[in-house]
């Protein structure tokens, strides 16, 4: 009984520790460049120039496009 109780406590402790230290969270770092005001979402084959431009204009930027694999918006 005591071994089972210790095993359950250890298991729950491992699960709790794992959930608190989630390394899979992407903060999506924001880069600022001299030509662009802000760069955020990575550009892919499914998220290209047009999607980037749409997101930038939706966020009230003047223009946007993929630069070095990232979606960059201009004021």
Automatic annotation (TrEMBL):
Please state every residue range assigned to the domain named Defensin-like: 37-75
Coiled coil residues, start to end: none
- Which keywords are on file for this protein? Antimicrobial, Disulfide bond, Fungicide, Plant defense, Signal
Asked whether the keyword Disulfide bond is assigned, the reply is yes
Q: Where is the signal peptide?
A: 1-19
Which family does this protein fall into?
Answer: Belongs to the DEFL family.
Protein's name according to its UniProt entry: Defensin-like protein 60
> What organism is this sequence from?
Camelina sativa
